[in-house]
Structure formats: C-alpha cells, structure tokens
Amino acid sequence: MFFLEDLPNSEILEAFAKRFPEMEVDATQACLKMLWIASHLIRDLEAQFAKHGLSQARFLVLIVLERTTAKHLMPVEMAKQLGISKKNTARVLSFMEADDLVTRSSHESDGRASLVSITPKGSKLLAEAMPDYYQVLNRAMKPLSRNAKCRLIQLLDQLGQPRTEDERRKRPT
Questions:
Q1: Interior CA angle at 114 toward 126 and 109, to 5°?
Q2: Number of domains in the chain
Q3: pTM of the model
Q4: Do 108 and 34 reside in the same domain of the chain?
C-alpha cells in the first residue's frame, strides 16, 4: 500500500529532479498517482471484503477456484496464480479449510500431492461478496467514459509488457 496522501506537485518534483538527475518528473508523477489510486482502491475493496469476513487473499483463493473449470487446484498451482509463496498459500488454505470455505483431498494420481476445492459454503460466500466487489470497481471507474476506460486498459497493458529479455523470462506464461 502507498500511504502518502499529499502527493508532491510539479514544483516539488522539479526541485527533486535537480538533486537527483535520475528522476524523470513526468514518470515519477504518473507512478505516484497510480500508486495513490491503487492504494485507495485496495482500501475500498478490503473494507468490502471485511464485511463478508474475507481478506483479499481469501477472496482471491475463492475466485481462482471458482473460475477453474475443474473447481480444484493443487496448492502449488494456486500459489503461482496468486503470486504468493507456497508457505503463505498453505497458511491461507489452512485457515480457509478450518472455516469450511475450501477442502483438501488427495490427488488422484500423485499420492504426495493434494487438491484444494471450493466448498458450497465458499461458493455461497463468494456469490454474496461479488456484488459489493463489482460496485467498488464500478465506482472507481465511474468518472471515465467508455472510450477513456478502453484507452486506460491499453495504456496499462503497455506498462505491463516486459521491456527486457530478463523480464520476459521471469514473466509467467
């Protein structure tokens, strides 16, 4: 999260750029605004998740399982999709299993592995949380026209593209 509420104006950034020649004022200003907006969006989402007894991690586990055709995944696959460590994934899954939101079962062909599945209680909770989730997203984008939203998606896609060979190799496929 980015907690700076009072973003520096162009004049302040120009002064920093004189001291730190590596700084590009427009790049810094754009990144600071993106961080500020993203942090506020995450705060709003987390407040909505909390109303349903969820955290962001729990919500994402449920989403990943719900959108998976088989409705189950191996924990290692889930960690990869969530972008968190296997250890953190295991911890979240343990708590969710205790709350009957997910279940673990033996993998049919690999006895050492397990599969995580969403429970009916987990599906029901997700269905209850989704309208609030979409309302937060809609409210965040309300100031933009349809064309502006399309352009924003294009710009964000550009920013998300790996720029070096190293970044391309690290990027999940």
A1: 125
A2: 2
A3: 0.83
A4: no
| Helix 56-67 × helix 120-141 angle, to 10° | 110
Q: Say if 112 falls within a structural domain.
A: yes
Q: DSSP letter at 112?
A: T
Q: Give the pLDDT confidence score for residue 166 in this predicted structure.
A: 64
What is the rounded CA–CA span in Å between residue 118 and residue 126? Answer: 10
Residue range of the domain that includes 22: 1-51
Q: What is the pLDDT of residue 173?
A: 45
Burial of 54 (0-12, 13-18, 19+ CB in 10 A): buried
Between the two ends of the chain, the Cα-to-Cα distance in Å is 26
Query: Side chain identity at 167, as an amino acid letter?
Result: E
Alpha-carbon distance of 153 to 159, in angstroms, equals: 10
Q: Tell me if 97 sits within 8 A of 65, measured CB to CB.
A: no
Number of neighbouring beta carbons within 10 Å of residue 79: 19
Q: Is residue 121 part of a domain?
A: yes
Percent of the chain residues past pLDDT 90, beyond the cut: 80
Same domain for 42 and 81, yes or no, is no
Number of H helices, E strands in the chain: 8, 3
CB 12 within 8 Å of CB 25: no
